[in-house]
Design a protein that fits this description.
The structure holds two protein chains of two kinds. Chain A folds into three domains: 35 residues, no CATH class; 156 residues, Alpha-Beta Complex (Cathepsin B, Chain A), CATH 3.90.70; 70 residues, Orthogonal Bundle (Globin-like). Helices cover 41% and strands 14% of the residues of chain A. Chain A contains eleven helices and ten strands. In chain A, the strands form three sheets. Chain A has a six-stranded antiparallel beta sheet, with helices on both faces. In chain A, strands 1-2 form a two-stranded antiparallel ribbon. Chain A has a two-stranded parallel ribbon with strand order 9-10. In chain A, α10 packs across α11. Chain B is mainly alpha-helical. Chain B contains nine helices and no strands. In chain B, α6 packs antiparallel against α7. Classes of the chains: A alpha+beta, B mainly alpha. Chains A and B meet through α1, α2 and α3 of A and α2, α3, α5, α6 and α7 of B.
Protein backbone atom coordinates (compact mmCIF):
# COMPACT_ATOMS: atom_id res chain seq x y z
CA UNK A 1 0.00 0.00 0.00
CA UNK A 2 2.87 2.37 0.79
CA UNK A 3 4.49 1.65 -2.57
CA UNK A 4 1.13 2.29 -4.25
CA UNK A 5 0.75 5.64 -2.49
CA UNK A 6 4.25 6.61 -3.56
CA UNK A 7 3.47 5.69 -7.17
CA UNK A 8 6.02 2.91 -7.16
CA UNK A 9 3.84 -0.08 -7.97
CA UNK A 10 3.88 -1.76 -11.35
CA UNK A 11 0.81 -1.35 -13.58
CA UNK A 12 -0.35 -4.85 -12.62
CA UNK A 13 0.11 -4.17 -8.91
CA UNK A 14 -1.74 -0.87 -9.19
CA UNK A 15 -4.69 -2.57 -10.83
CA UNK A 16 -4.64 -5.19 -8.09
CA UNK A 17 -4.85 -2.48 -5.45
CA UNK A 18 -7.74 -0.80 -7.24
CA UNK A 19 -9.53 -4.14 -7.52
CA UNK A 20 -8.88 -4.91 -3.85
CA UNK A 21 -10.43 -1.59 -2.92
CA UNK A 22 -13.79 -2.92 -4.01
CA UNK A 23 -13.55 -5.97 -1.78
CA UNK A 24 -11.81 -4.74 1.29
CA UNK A 25 -13.52 -2.11 3.43
CA UNK A 26 -10.54 -1.93 5.75
CA UNK A 27 -8.26 -1.11 2.83
CA UNK A 28 -10.70 1.57 1.70
CA UNK A 29 -10.67 3.13 5.14
CA UNK A 30 -6.89 2.95 5.38
CA UNK A 31 -6.39 4.56 1.98
CA UNK A 32 -8.99 7.20 2.75
CA UNK A 33 -7.11 8.11 5.92
CA UNK A 34 -3.78 8.07 4.11
CA UNK A 35 -5.10 10.63 1.65
CA UNK A 36 -6.77 12.72 4.34
CA UNK A 37 -3.58 13.04 6.38
CA UNK A 38 -1.34 13.56 3.38
CA UNK A 39 0.23 16.71 4.63
CA UNK A 40 3.86 15.83 4.93
CA UNK A 41 5.84 18.50 6.66
CA UNK A 42 8.06 19.70 3.86
CA UNK A 43 9.41 22.72 5.64
CA UNK A 44 12.13 23.06 8.22
CA UNK A 45 10.69 23.23 11.70
CA UNK A 46 12.44 25.80 13.83
CA UNK A 47 13.68 24.37 17.13
CA UNK A 48 11.99 26.90 19.38
CA UNK A 49 11.57 24.41 22.19
CA UNK A 50 15.02 22.86 22.01
CA UNK A 51 16.94 23.49 25.18
CA UNK A 52 20.24 25.16 25.68
CA UNK A 53 21.47 22.84 28.36
CA UNK A 54 25.10 22.69 29.34
CA UNK A 55 26.82 23.36 32.63
CA UNK A 56 25.71 21.95 35.91
CA UNK A 57 22.04 22.85 36.23
CA UNK A 58 21.73 23.44 32.50
CA UNK A 59 22.31 27.14 32.97
CA UNK A 60 24.58 27.99 30.03
CA UNK A 61 22.14 30.54 28.65
CA UNK A 62 21.87 32.28 32.02
CA UNK A 63 25.65 32.43 32.25
CA UNK A 64 25.87 33.87 28.73
CA UNK A 65 23.34 36.53 29.62
CA UNK A 66 25.19 37.28 32.86
CA UNK A 67 28.38 37.69 30.83
CA UNK A 68 26.69 40.29 28.61
CA UNK A 69 25.10 42.13 31.54
CA UNK A 70 28.54 42.35 33.07
CA UNK A 71 30.01 43.71 29.82
CA UNK A 72 27.25 46.31 29.69
CA UNK A 73 27.93 47.36 33.30
CA UNK A 74 24.49 46.32 34.46
CA UNK A 75 24.28 45.56 38.15
CA UNK A 76 22.84 42.14 38.92
CA UNK A 77 23.34 39.10 41.05
CA UNK A 78 23.59 35.64 39.57
CA UNK A 79 21.23 34.37 42.24
CA UNK A 80 18.55 36.86 41.14
CA UNK A 81 19.02 35.86 37.51
CA UNK A 82 18.55 32.21 38.30
CA UNK A 83 15.53 32.80 40.49
CA UNK A 84 13.88 34.99 37.89
CA UNK A 85 14.66 32.60 35.03
CA UNK A 86 13.23 29.67 36.98
CA UNK A 87 10.16 31.58 38.15
CA UNK A 88 9.28 32.70 34.62
CA UNK A 89 10.00 29.38 32.91
CA UNK A 90 12.87 30.88 30.96
CA UNK A 91 14.92 28.14 32.58
CA UNK A 92 13.57 24.66 33.04
CA UNK A 93 15.21 21.62 34.59
CA UNK A 94 16.20 20.41 31.13
CA UNK A 95 17.65 23.79 30.13
CA UNK A 96 16.52 27.09 28.62
CA UNK A 97 14.17 26.86 25.63
CA UNK A 98 16.26 28.59 23.01
CA UNK A 99 13.48 31.03 22.25
CA UNK A 100 13.81 32.25 25.85
CA UNK A 101 17.47 33.14 25.52
CA UNK A 102 17.72 36.89 26.00
CA UNK A 103 14.66 37.27 28.24
CA UNK A 104 16.85 38.16 31.20
CA UNK A 105 18.67 40.77 29.17
CA UNK A 106 15.37 42.28 28.08
CA UNK A 107 14.26 42.31 31.71
CA UNK A 108 17.29 44.44 32.54
CA UNK A 109 16.36 46.91 29.81
CA UNK A 110 18.60 45.71 26.99
CA UNK A 111 17.13 45.54 23.48
CA UNK A 112 17.14 41.99 22.15
CA UNK A 113 16.21 40.57 18.77
CA UNK A 114 16.00 36.90 17.84
CA UNK A 115 16.23 35.27 14.49
CA UNK A 116 16.66 31.93 12.81
CA UNK A 117 18.54 31.20 9.61
CA UNK A 118 21.16 33.84 10.28
CA UNK A 119 24.62 33.61 8.72
CA UNK A 120 28.14 34.50 9.81
CA UNK A 121 27.83 37.83 7.97
CA UNK A 122 24.94 38.65 10.30
CA UNK A 123 27.18 37.91 13.27
CA UNK A 124 29.98 40.02 11.80
CA UNK A 125 27.58 42.89 11.12
CA UNK A 126 26.33 42.76 14.69
CA UNK A 127 29.82 42.62 16.20
CA UNK A 128 30.97 45.55 14.05
CA UNK A 129 28.30 47.72 15.68
CA UNK A 130 29.31 46.49 19.13
CA UNK A 131 26.18 44.42 19.49
CA UNK A 132 26.48 41.25 21.53
CA UNK A 133 25.58 37.93 20.00
CA UNK A 134 24.46 34.70 21.64
CA UNK A 135 24.01 31.65 19.44
CA UNK A 136 22.71 28.17 20.13
CA UNK A 137 25.02 25.38 19.04
CA UNK A 138 25.43 21.64 19.31
CA UNK A 139 28.43 21.28 21.58
CA UNK A 140 29.67 17.94 20.26
CA UNK A 141 29.94 19.43 16.79
CA UNK A 142 31.60 22.53 18.20
CA UNK A 143 34.25 20.39 19.86
CA UNK A 144 34.60 17.29 17.69
CA UNK A 145 37.25 15.86 20.03
CA UNK A 146 34.99 15.84 23.04
CA UNK A 147 32.99 12.79 23.89
CA UNK A 148 29.33 13.69 24.16
CA UNK A 149 27.28 10.53 24.62
CA UNK A 150 23.96 12.38 24.71
CA UNK A 151 24.49 13.96 21.31
CA UNK A 152 21.33 15.91 21.78
CA UNK A 153 21.70 19.20 23.52
CA UNK A 154 21.93 22.67 22.24
CA UNK A 155 24.27 24.94 24.01
CA UNK A 156 24.39 28.72 24.35
CA UNK A 157 27.63 30.60 23.73
CA UNK A 158 28.50 34.26 23.17
CA UNK A 159 30.32 35.02 19.93
CA UNK A 160 33.20 37.40 20.53
CA UNK A 161 34.74 37.49 17.07
CA UNK A 162 34.91 35.84 13.69
CA UNK A 163 38.29 35.98 12.01
CA UNK A 164 38.94 33.82 8.98
CA UNK A 165 39.38 30.24 10.12
CA UNK A 166 38.60 30.93 13.74
CA UNK A 167 35.65 31.96 15.83
CA UNK A 168 36.19 33.31 19.34
CA UNK A 169 33.59 32.46 21.91
CA UNK A 170 32.64 32.93 25.50
CA UNK A 171 31.67 29.40 26.42
CA UNK A 172 30.59 28.97 30.03
CA UNK A 173 30.84 25.18 29.89
CA UNK A 174 34.60 24.83 30.29
CA UNK A 175 37.21 25.84 32.84
CA UNK A 176 38.60 28.21 30.25
CA UNK A 177 35.62 30.27 29.11
CA UNK A 178 37.31 32.22 26.32
CA UNK A 179 37.86 29.72 23.54
CA UNK A 180 38.63 29.63 19.85
CA UNK A 181 37.09 27.06 17.56
CA UNK A 182 37.47 26.40 13.87
CA UNK A 183 34.92 28.24 11.72
CA UNK A 184 33.90 25.01 10.00
CA UNK A 185 33.16 23.34 13.35
CA UNK A 186 31.28 26.41 14.52
CA UNK A 187 29.21 26.44 11.32
CA UNK A 188 28.26 22.78 11.70
CA UNK A 189 27.44 23.24 15.36
CA UNK A 190 25.38 26.36 14.71
CA UNK A 191 23.43 24.73 11.87
CA UNK A 192 21.89 22.37 14.44
CA UNK A 193 19.85 25.22 15.89
CA UNK A 194 18.85 26.42 12.42
CA UNK A 195 21.36 29.20 12.90
CA UNK A 196 19.57 30.74 15.82
CA UNK A 197 21.01 34.05 16.90
CA UNK A 198 20.13 36.42 19.70
CA UNK A 199 21.39 39.91 19.10
CA UNK A 200 21.71 42.42 21.90
CA UNK A 201 21.50 45.90 20.42
CA UNK A 202 23.39 48.98 21.51
CA UNK A 203 20.80 51.45 20.24
CA UNK A 204 17.45 51.49 18.52
CA UNK A 205 19.22 52.41 15.27
CA UNK A 206 20.63 48.88 15.19
CA UNK A 207 17.15 47.39 15.00
CA UNK A 208 16.31 45.71 11.73
CA UNK A 209 13.02 43.76 11.73
CA UNK A 210 13.63 40.14 10.69
CA UNK A 211 10.33 38.25 10.66
CA UNK A 212 10.65 34.50 10.34
CA UNK A 213 10.45 33.44 6.73
CA UNK A 214 7.29 31.39 6.31
CA UNK A 215 7.32 31.02 2.53
CA UNK A 216 7.94 27.30 2.70
CA UNK A 217 4.95 26.56 4.96
CA UNK A 218 1.95 25.41 3.00
CA UNK A 219 -1.40 25.03 4.71
CA UNK A 220 -4.11 22.50 4.10
CA UNK A 221 -7.53 23.76 3.02
CA UNK A 222 -9.05 23.48 6.49
CA UNK A 223 -6.28 25.63 7.95
CA UNK A 224 -6.82 28.21 5.24
CA UNK A 225 -10.48 28.30 6.29
CA UNK A 226 -9.35 28.79 9.85
CA UNK A 227 -7.59 31.93 8.67
CA UNK A 228 -10.90 33.66 7.96
CA UNK A 229 -12.27 32.83 11.41
CA UNK A 230 -9.13 34.11 13.09
CA UNK A 231 -9.13 37.27 10.97
CA UNK A 232 -12.73 38.03 11.87
CA UNK A 233 -12.17 37.38 15.55
CA UNK A 234 -9.04 39.53 15.57
CA UNK A 235 -11.18 42.38 14.28
CA UNK A 236 -13.76 41.72 17.02
CA UNK A 237 -11.07 41.77 19.69
CA UNK A 238 -9.63 45.00 18.31
CA UNK A 239 -13.05 46.66 17.99
CA UNK A 240 -14.11 45.60 21.49
CA UNK A 241 -10.91 47.05 22.97
CA UNK A 242 -11.35 50.32 21.08
CA UNK A 243 -14.98 50.67 22.16
CA UNK A 244 -13.97 50.00 25.75
CA UNK A 245 -11.52 52.88 25.45
CA UNK A 246 -14.33 55.16 24.31
CA UNK A 247 -13.79 55.07 20.56
CA UNK A 248 -16.81 55.30 18.25
CA UNK A 249 -17.40 55.03 14.57
CA UNK A 250 -16.43 57.99 12.40
CA UNK A 251 -16.06 58.28 8.65
CA UNK A 252 -12.53 59.59 9.10
CA UNK A 253 -10.01 58.60 11.72
CA UNK A 254 -9.79 61.27 14.38
CA UNK A 255 -7.51 60.37 17.29
CA UNK A 256 -8.47 63.47 19.27
CA UNK A 257 -12.17 62.65 19.27
CA UNK A 258 -11.61 58.88 19.22
CA UNK A 259 -13.34 58.24 15.92
CA UNK A 260 -12.37 55.32 13.69
CA UNK A 261 -13.77 54.28 10.31
CA UNK A 262 -13.09 50.58 10.96
CA UNK A 263 -15.39 50.31 13.97
CA UNK A 264 -17.89 48.40 11.87
CA UNK A 265 -18.59 44.68 11.55
CA UNK A 266 -15.86 42.68 9.86
CA UNK A 267 -18.22 41.82 6.99
CA UNK A 268 -18.59 45.51 6.20
CA UNK A 269 -14.86 46.26 6.19
CA UNK A 270 -13.28 47.15 2.87
CA UNK A 271 -11.39 44.23 1.33
CA UNK A 272 -8.07 46.01 1.91
CA UNK A 273 -8.69 46.02 5.67
CA UNK A 274 -9.91 42.43 5.68
CA UNK A 275 -6.80 41.47 3.78
CA UNK A 276 -4.63 42.98 6.50
CA UNK A 277 -6.38 40.83 9.12
CA UNK A 278 -6.15 37.78 6.89
CA UNK A 279 -2.42 38.19 6.37
CA UNK A 280 -1.91 38.50 10.11
CA UNK A 281 -4.03 35.40 10.71
CA UNK A 282 -2.36 33.38 7.99
CA UNK A 283 1.10 34.25 9.23
CA UNK A 284 0.10 33.31 12.74
CA UNK A 285 -1.10 29.88 11.66
CA UNK A 286 2.02 29.37 9.55
CA UNK A 287 4.26 30.46 12.39
CA UNK A 288 2.63 28.00 14.77
CA UNK A 289 3.45 25.21 12.33
CA UNK A 290 6.91 26.53 11.58
CA UNK A 291 7.73 26.48 15.28
CA UNK A 292 6.88 22.80 15.42
CA UNK A 293 3.33 22.77 16.67
CA UNK A 294 0.58 20.90 14.93
CA UNK A 295 -3.01 22.05 14.62
CA UNK A 296 -5.37 19.10 14.76
CA UNK A 297 -9.10 19.43 14.30
CA UNK A 298 -11.13 17.96 17.11
CA UNK A 299 -13.26 15.30 15.48
CA UNK A 300 -16.13 15.94 17.88
CA UNK A 301 -16.80 19.36 16.34
CA UNK B 1 19.38 11.70 6.05
CA UNK B 2 18.58 9.01 3.54
CA UNK B 3 15.88 6.45 4.18
CA UNK B 4 18.61 3.89 4.85
CA UNK B 5 20.15 6.19 7.47
CA UNK B 6 16.75 6.57 9.11
CA UNK B 7 16.01 2.85 9.18
CA UNK B 8 19.50 2.08 10.43
CA UNK B 9 19.29 4.81 13.08
CA UNK B 10 15.90 3.63 14.30
CA UNK B 11 17.03 0.01 14.52
CA UNK B 12 20.16 1.05 16.40
CA UNK B 13 18.02 3.27 18.68
CA UNK B 14 20.08 6.29 17.72
CA UNK B 15 18.75 9.09 19.95
CA UNK B 16 18.98 11.80 17.37
CA UNK B 17 17.34 9.85 14.54
CA UNK B 18 14.58 8.57 16.80
CA UNK B 19 13.91 12.00 18.24
CA UNK B 20 14.11 13.93 15.00
CA UNK B 21 12.40 11.52 12.64
CA UNK B 22 9.98 9.42 14.65
CA UNK B 23 9.08 11.86 17.42
CA UNK B 24 9.71 15.00 15.35
CA UNK B 25 8.97 14.75 11.65
CA UNK B 26 6.40 11.97 11.99
CA UNK B 27 4.62 13.02 15.17
CA UNK B 28 2.28 15.52 13.47
CA UNK B 29 1.41 12.79 10.96
CA UNK B 30 0.67 10.29 13.71
CA UNK B 31 -1.47 12.86 15.50
CA UNK B 32 -3.49 13.50 12.35
CA UNK B 33 -4.02 9.75 11.92
CA UNK B 34 -5.12 9.40 15.54
CA UNK B 35 -7.40 12.41 15.09
CA UNK B 36 -9.01 10.73 12.08
CA UNK B 37 -9.60 7.45 13.88
CA UNK B 38 -10.64 8.37 17.40
CA UNK B 39 -13.66 10.53 17.93
CA UNK B 40 -13.00 10.98 21.64
CA UNK B 41 -10.10 12.50 23.55
CA UNK B 42 -7.05 10.31 23.63
CA UNK B 43 -3.54 10.84 24.91
CA UNK B 44 -1.59 11.50 21.72
CA UNK B 45 1.82 11.07 23.33
CA UNK B 46 0.83 7.79 24.91
CA UNK B 47 -0.45 6.51 21.57
CA UNK B 48 2.67 7.60 19.70
CA UNK B 49 4.86 5.97 22.34
CA UNK B 50 2.85 2.75 21.98
CA UNK B 51 3.40 2.84 18.25
CA UNK B 52 7.12 3.20 18.83
CA UNK B 53 7.15 0.20 21.16
CA UNK B 54 5.22 -1.78 18.53
CA UNK B 55 7.72 -0.77 15.85
CA UNK B 56 10.70 -1.76 17.96
CA UNK B 57 9.15 -5.03 19.15
CA UNK B 58 10.99 -8.28 18.49
CA UNK B 59 14.31 -6.58 17.81
CA UNK B 60 12.71 -4.07 15.44
CA UNK B 61 11.54 -6.85 13.17
CA UNK B 62 9.22 -4.60 11.20
CA UNK B 63 11.96 -2.11 10.48
CA UNK B 64 14.28 -4.90 9.39
CA UNK B 65 11.62 -6.14 6.98
CA UNK B 66 11.28 -2.78 5.26
CA UNK B 67 11.97 -3.32 1.56
CA UNK B 68 12.48 0.29 0.45
CA UNK B 69 9.66 0.04 -2.07
CA UNK B 70 8.33 3.35 -0.79
CA UNK B 71 9.72 6.18 1.30
CA UNK B 72 10.11 5.41 4.99
CA UNK B 73 7.66 8.22 5.72
CA UNK B 74 4.90 6.69 3.59
CA UNK B 75 5.65 3.23 4.94
CA UNK B 76 5.38 4.48 8.51
CA UNK B 77 2.20 6.30 7.62
CA UNK B 78 0.58 3.08 6.41
CA UNK B 79 1.94 1.13 9.36
CA UNK B 80 0.55 3.73 11.78
CA UNK B 81 -2.85 3.78 10.07
CA UNK B 82 -3.15 0.02 10.28
CA UNK B 83 -1.88 -0.07 13.87
CA UNK B 84 -4.30 2.60 15.08
CA UNK B 85 -7.21 1.12 13.12
CA UNK B 86 -6.62 -2.18 14.92
CA UNK B 87 -6.28 -0.39 18.24
CA UNK B 88 -9.54 1.45 17.68
CA UNK B 89 -11.36 -1.74 16.74
CA UNK B 90 -9.91 -3.52 19.75
CA UNK B 91 -11.01 -0.72 22.07
CA UNK B 92 -14.50 -0.77 20.63
CA UNK B 93 -14.60 -4.52 20.98
CA UNK B 94 -13.25 -4.55 24.54
CA UNK B 95 -15.61 -1.91 25.84
CA UNK B 96 -18.59 -3.39 24.02
CA UNK B 97 -19.78 0.14 23.44
CA UNK B 98 -20.79 -0.81 19.96
CA UNK B 99 -20.84 -4.08 18.16
CA UNK B 100 -18.01 -4.40 15.70
CA UNK B 101 -19.36 -3.14 12.46
CA UNK B 102 -18.57 -5.33 9.58
CA UNK B 103 -19.66 -4.14 6.24
CA UNK B 104 -21.19 -6.88 4.19
CA UNK B 105 -18.55 -8.26 1.91
CA UNK B 106 -19.34 -7.17 -1.55
CA UNK B 107 -19.64 -9.74 -4.19
CA UNK B 108 -16.45 -10.22 -6.08
CA UNK B 109 -18.33 -10.94 -9.21
CA UNK B 110 -17.75 -8.29 -11.77
CA UNK B 111 -20.46 -6.72 -13.76
CA UNK B 112 -20.86 -8.25 -17.16
CA UNK B 113 -18.27 -7.16 -19.64
CA UNK B 114 -16.49 -4.95 -17.18
CA UNK B 115 -12.84 -5.51 -16.47
CA UNK B 116 -10.54 -3.76 -14.05
CA UNK B 117 -9.05 -1.96 -17.03
CA UNK B 118 -12.40 -0.63 -18.15
CA UNK B 119 -13.15 0.47 -14.58
CA UNK B 120 -9.85 2.29 -14.66
CA UNK B 121 -10.77 3.92 -17.98
CA UNK B 122 -13.97 5.16 -16.39
CA UNK B 123 -12.10 6.56 -13.41
CA UNK B 124 -9.54 8.23 -15.64
CA UNK B 125 -12.32 10.01 -17.48
CA UNK B 126 -13.53 11.36 -14.13
CA UNK B 127 -10.14 12.74 -13.10
CA UNK B 128 -10.24 16.54 -12.99
CA UNK B 129 -6.57 16.90 -13.90
CA UNK B 130 -6.02 15.62 -17.47
CA UNK B 131 -2.25 15.66 -17.00
CA UNK B 132 -2.58 13.26 -14.08
CA UNK B 133 -4.96 11.07 -16.07
CA UNK B 134 -2.47 11.03 -18.95
CA UNK B 135 0.37 9.92 -16.68
CA UNK B 136 -1.71 7.08 -15.25
CA UNK B 137 -2.88 5.99 -18.67
CA UNK B 138 0.63 5.94 -20.12
CA UNK B 139 2.29 4.25 -17.19
CA UNK B 140 -0.40 1.83 -16.16
CA UNK B 141 -2.46 0.97 -19.19
CA UNK B 142 0.11 1.36 -21.89
CA UNK B 143 3.07 0.33 -19.73
CA UNK B 144 5.16 3.17 -21.14
CA UNK B 145 8.74 3.45 -19.90
CA UNK B 146 8.98 6.22 -17.28
CA UNK B 147 12.11 7.67 -18.90
CA UNK B 148 10.38 7.98 -22.26
CA UNK B 149 7.29 9.58 -20.74
CA UNK B 150 9.41 11.98 -18.71
CA UNK B 151 11.20 13.01 -21.92
CA UNK B 152 7.92 13.46 -23.73
CA UNK B 153 6.51 15.61 -20.94
CA UNK B 154 9.70 17.61 -20.52
CA UNK B 155 10.17 16.69 -16.86
CA UNK B 156 12.80 14.70 -15.02
CA UNK B 157 12.08 11.09 -14.17
CA UNK B 158 12.14 11.98 -10.48
CA UNK B 159 9.58 14.67 -11.11
CA UNK B 160 7.48 12.25 -13.10
CA UNK B 161 7.31 10.03 -10.03
CA UNK B 162 6.07 12.99 -8.00
CA UNK B 163 3.41 13.65 -10.63
CA UNK B 164 2.49 9.98 -10.62
CA UNK B 165 2.23 10.02 -6.84
CA UNK B 166 -0.21 12.94 -6.93
CA UNK B 167 -2.07 11.31 -9.80
CA UNK B 168 -2.43 8.09 -7.79
CA UNK B 169 -3.86 10.09 -4.89
CA UNK B 170 -6.41 11.69 -7.19
CA UNK B 171 -7.27 8.35 -8.79
CA UNK B 172 -7.69 6.72 -5.38
CA UNK B 173 -10.10 9.42 -4.25
CA UNK B 174 -12.17 8.85 -7.35
CA UNK B 175 -12.08 5.10 -6.81
CA UNK B 176 -13.20 5.52 -3.20
CA UNK B 177 -16.00 7.89 -4.20
CA UNK B 178 -17.05 5.52 -6.95
CA UNK B 179 -17.26 2.59 -4.55
CA UNK B 180 -19.13 4.69 -2.00
CA UNK B 181 -21.68 5.75 -4.61
CA UNK B 182 -21.98 2.23 -5.89
CA UNK B 183 -22.62 1.04 -2.35
CA UNK B 184 -25.44 3.50 -1.91
CA UNK B 185 -27.33 2.29 -4.90
Amino acid sequence: MAAYLDGKTSPAETLLVLEALKQDSSLREALGIALAVDDKVTFDILPMMEHAAQNQGNICSVLCEAFILHRRDVLFSEKDLLEMANARNWLKPQGAPIHSIGQLLAHYGLMVTRRYNACTDDILGALQTNNDVIVAVDSDKLYPDRDDPDDAVNHAVVVLGVEGEWVSLFDPSGKETNVRVRTKDFTRAWNESKNYMVRVLQSVEDYEPQPINLDDVELTDDLVELREAIAENAHEVWAAARKKEGWTYGKVRDDEHKKHPDLIPYSALPESEKEYDRIMALNTIKLVRKLGFDIVKNKKK
Amino acid sequence: MTDRDIIHGLIEKDNRVTREFFFGTCRPLFCRIIGQLFSYDVDYDEFVNELYVYLMDDDARKLREFEYRSSVYTWLKVLAIRYFMKKRDRLIDDSSRKPLYEEPVQSDEKEDGLTVESDLEKMLSLMPNPRYAYVIRKLMLEDCEPDLLADEMGVTTANLYNIKRRAIAQLTLIALNDIEEYGKK
